[in-house]
Protein backbone atom coordinates (compact mmCIF):
# COMPACT_ATOMS: atom_id res chain seq x y z
CA UNK A 1 0.00 0.00 0.00
CA UNK A 2 2.99 2.32 0.35
CA UNK A 3 3.01 3.14 -3.35
CA UNK A 4 -0.65 4.22 -3.15
CA UNK A 5 0.14 6.57 -0.25
CA UNK A 6 3.15 7.98 -2.13
CA UNK A 7 1.08 8.43 -5.29
CA UNK A 8 -1.64 10.25 -3.37
CA UNK A 9 0.92 12.49 -1.67
CA UNK A 10 2.35 13.41 -5.08
CA UNK A 11 -1.14 14.15 -6.41
CA UNK A 12 -1.84 16.33 -3.37
CA UNK A 13 1.37 18.32 -3.85
CA UNK A 14 0.63 18.81 -7.56
CA UNK A 15 -3.00 19.76 -6.80
CA UNK A 16 -4.30 16.85 -8.87
CA UNK A 17 -7.79 15.74 -7.90
CA UNK A 18 -10.71 13.92 -9.42
CA UNK A 19 -8.67 11.25 -11.19
CA UNK A 20 -9.09 7.52 -11.57
CA UNK A 21 -6.06 5.28 -12.12
CA UNK A 22 -6.93 1.89 -13.59
CA UNK A 23 -3.48 0.81 -14.76
CA UNK A 24 -2.96 -2.16 -12.45
CA UNK A 25 -6.26 -3.37 -11.01
CA UNK A 26 -8.97 -5.57 -12.40
CA UNK A 27 -11.44 -3.86 -14.73
CA UNK A 28 -14.34 -2.24 -12.89
CA UNK A 29 -17.81 -3.66 -13.46
CA UNK A 30 -20.68 -1.23 -14.07
CA UNK A 31 -21.77 -1.20 -10.41
CA UNK A 32 -18.23 -0.44 -9.22
CA UNK A 33 -17.92 2.18 -11.98
CA UNK A 34 -21.00 3.99 -10.60
CA UNK A 35 -19.32 4.37 -7.20
CA UNK A 36 -15.96 5.38 -8.70
CA UNK A 37 -17.59 7.95 -11.00
CA UNK A 38 -19.39 9.49 -8.00
CA UNK A 39 -16.13 9.78 -6.05
CA UNK A 40 -14.19 11.23 -8.99
CA UNK A 41 -16.96 13.80 -9.61
CA UNK A 42 -16.45 14.93 -6.00
CA UNK A 43 -12.76 15.53 -6.67
CA UNK A 44 -11.43 12.38 -5.02
CA UNK A 45 -8.55 10.40 -6.50
CA UNK A 46 -9.33 6.72 -6.98
CA UNK A 47 -6.78 4.00 -7.69
CA UNK A 48 -7.98 0.54 -8.70
CA UNK A 49 -5.90 -1.95 -6.73
CA UNK A 50 -4.30 -5.12 -8.06
CA UNK A 51 -5.23 -8.50 -6.67
CA UNK A 52 -2.75 -10.17 -4.33
CA UNK A 53 -0.49 -12.73 -5.99
CA UNK A 54 -1.14 -15.04 -3.05
CA UNK A 55 -4.81 -15.22 -3.96
CA UNK A 56 -5.80 -13.46 -0.74
CA UNK A 57 -8.75 -11.12 -0.92
CA UNK A 58 -7.73 -7.47 -1.39
CA UNK A 59 -9.63 -4.17 -1.36
CA UNK A 60 -11.05 -3.02 -4.70
CA UNK A 61 -9.84 0.57 -4.65
CA UNK A 62 -7.88 3.22 -2.80
CA UNK A 63 -9.67 6.54 -2.33
CA UNK A 64 -7.31 9.43 -1.66
CA UNK A 65 -4.69 6.86 -0.64
CA UNK A 66 -6.95 4.83 1.69
CA UNK A 67 -7.89 1.24 0.85
CA UNK A 68 -11.63 0.70 0.45
CA UNK A 69 -14.03 -1.97 -0.73
CA UNK A 70 -17.06 -1.62 -3.00
CA UNK A 71 -20.10 -3.81 -2.35
CA UNK A 72 -23.27 -3.84 -4.44
CA UNK A 73 -26.66 -4.63 -2.96
CA UNK A 74 -28.76 -6.42 -5.58
CA UNK A 75 -30.85 -8.87 -3.58
CA UNK A 76 -33.52 -8.45 -0.91
CA UNK A 77 -31.95 -9.85 2.25
CA UNK A 78 -30.57 -7.11 4.52
CA UNK A 79 -29.04 -9.59 6.98
CA UNK A 80 -27.13 -11.51 4.33
CA UNK A 81 -25.85 -8.28 2.75
CA UNK A 82 -24.80 -6.91 6.15
CA UNK A 83 -22.88 -10.15 6.76
CA UNK A 84 -20.97 -9.66 3.47
CA UNK A 85 -20.14 -6.05 4.33
CA UNK A 86 -19.17 -7.02 7.88
CA UNK A 87 -16.59 -9.49 6.55
CA UNK A 88 -14.67 -6.78 4.68
CA UNK A 89 -12.48 -5.75 7.62
CA UNK A 90 -11.35 -9.33 8.30
CA UNK A 91 -10.99 -10.41 4.68
CA UNK A 92 -9.66 -7.27 2.98
CA UNK A 93 -8.10 -5.45 5.91
CA UNK A 94 -10.10 -2.25 5.55
CA UNK A 95 -13.05 -0.83 7.45
CA UNK A 96 -13.97 1.57 4.63
CA UNK A 97 -16.86 0.38 2.44
CA UNK A 98 -18.82 1.99 -0.37
CA UNK A 99 -22.21 0.41 -1.04
CA UNK A 100 -23.86 0.75 -4.44
CA UNK A 101 -27.59 0.61 -3.64
CA UNK A 102 -28.88 1.51 -7.11
CA UNK A 103 -30.30 -1.96 -7.74
CA UNK A 104 -30.99 -2.96 -4.16
CA UNK A 105 -34.16 -4.93 -3.49
CA UNK A 106 -33.76 -4.18 0.23
CA UNK A 107 -35.99 -1.48 1.68
CA UNK A 108 -33.81 1.63 1.90
CA UNK A 109 -34.46 2.17 5.62
CA UNK A 110 -33.62 -1.48 6.34
CA UNK A 111 -30.40 -1.26 4.34
CA UNK A 112 -29.27 1.92 6.11
CA UNK A 113 -30.24 0.43 9.48
CA UNK A 114 -28.17 -2.70 8.81
CA UNK A 115 -25.16 -0.58 7.78
CA UNK A 116 -25.57 1.67 10.86
CA UNK A 117 -25.48 -1.44 13.05
CA UNK A 118 -22.18 -2.54 11.47
CA UNK A 119 -20.58 0.82 12.21
CA UNK A 120 -22.04 0.92 15.74
CA UNK A 121 -20.67 -2.55 16.53
CA UNK A 122 -17.22 -1.75 15.14
CA UNK A 123 -17.48 -4.10 12.14
CA UNK A 124 -16.78 -1.15 9.83
CA UNK A 125 -15.27 2.29 10.40
CA UNK A 126 -17.03 4.04 7.52
CA UNK A 127 -19.81 3.01 5.17
CA UNK A 128 -21.24 5.19 2.43
CA UNK A 129 -24.49 4.08 0.81
CA UNK A 130 -24.72 5.51 -2.71
CA UNK A 131 -27.96 5.07 -4.62
CA UNK A 132 -30.69 6.76 -6.58
CA UNK A 133 -32.73 7.35 -3.42
CA UNK A 134 -29.99 8.75 -1.20
CA UNK A 135 -26.30 9.22 -0.50
CA UNK A 136 -25.64 8.56 3.18
CA UNK A 137 -22.37 8.46 5.11
CA UNK A 138 -22.12 6.39 8.29
CA UNK A 139 -19.11 6.45 10.59
CA UNK A 140 -16.05 8.61 10.05
CA UNK A 141 -13.85 8.95 7.01
CA UNK A 142 -10.28 8.76 8.35
Describe the structure.
- The chain has 142 residues and is of the alpha/beta class.
- It has a single domain, classed as Trna Endonuclease, Chain: A, domain 1 (3-Layer(aba) Sandwich), CATH 3.40.1350.
- 36% of the residues lie in helices and 21% in strands.
- It contains 5 helices and 7 strands.
- α3 packs parallel to α5.
- The longest helix is centred in the C-terminal third of the chain and has 13 residues, at 108-120.
CATH topology: Trna Endonuclease, Chain: A, domain 1
Could you say which structural class the secondary elements and strand pairing correspond to? alpha/beta
Mean pLDDT: 92
Major sheet: 7 strands, mixed
Report Rg.
15 Å
The figure for the number of domains is 1
The beta-strand count equals 7
Give helix % range.
25-40%
Low-confidence stretches: none
CATH architectural group: 3-Layer(aba) Sandwich
Strand order of the largest sheet: 1-2-3-4-5-6-7
CATH class reads Alpha Beta
Could you spell the SSE succession in H and E letters? Answer: HEHEEEHHEHEE
Q: Counting H and I runs of at least 4 residues, what is the number of helices?
A: 5
Global outline:
globular
N-to-C terminal Cα separation, in Å? 16 Å
Strand-residue proportion: 15-25%
